[in-house]
Design goal:
By secondary structure, the protein is an alpha/beta fold. The protein is built from nine helices and 13 strands. The strands form three sheets. Strands 3, 4, 5, 6, 7, 10, 11, 12 and 13 form a nine-stranded mixed β-sheet that branches. The chain is elongated and about 100 Å long.
Length: 304
Amino acid sequence: MFGMDRLTEMEAFANVVDQGGFTDAAKKMGLSKSAVSKHVSSLEARLGARLLNRTTRRVSPTEIGLAYYDRARRVLNDAGEADALVTAMQSAPSGLLRISVATDFGVNHLSPVLSEFLNDFPDITVNMVLNNRYVELISEGFDMAVRVGELEDSSLRARKLCDTQKRMIAAPAYLEKYGRPTRIDDLTNHKLLHYSNQSSGNLWKITAPSGEKRQIRSAGWLSVNDGQSLLNAAVSGLGIAYLPSYLYSDAMADGRVEDVMPSLPVETQGIYAVYPPGRFTQPKVRAFIDFLAHTFADKGLETW
């Protein structure tokens, strides 16, 4: 068994090495010099090896002692982190929370609810970064991200917040002028509005009424890296855009855009909170993800 005395012996030895002697090690541990010496002697006796060279002037680790020190220091650090983890898990969520969010989703749906979250958790400060590129969470220093659609990085942990529905939409004026496509192949003769940040380029993946997966590639009339701008272009009659419902729902409700091909199956995409892997999720991250899940569920946004 790994007893408490064994951990104390290890700590005494590591402190003697760190401090360069028994006197300073004793001060750091709040013990008497003789108690520290006794712990180290007990450790050496148990291991059957001399770990320290003791001279009148200084104390230094032997070769075996140095090797043991490296491993012991790791064990002690792990033990310290384990204690800190329990403390953190019981403490109130606090600190800086860095979030990466797609611009149009952040502007339309996260910004309006942030004040409620910050009022609930006054010890958390939020840095929300809006961008339309794929962010490497860990290397770029983000605590979490909100992502729409397929999750490319399977190493991250994810929690589904709600769904959104993707449809082809256009203004009534556009459909009056250019006609309504009745088949998927008709789209190649229309003015398509593309989202330029897609890794697949100007390619739409569409499911036909038969269930067959189709791909439509077109140069398009306009490419832009922002969903809200694409919606604005569609509303103004510039062409057909393929957008998630969290962007077009208001415009469709008041008649500014229509579903271009209502016979097509609706593509449902998940909206996820993603965060780095690990057994321990920081309280600030857990608090925000719980808040988002409850907020979107309360608003009836399971399908959004």
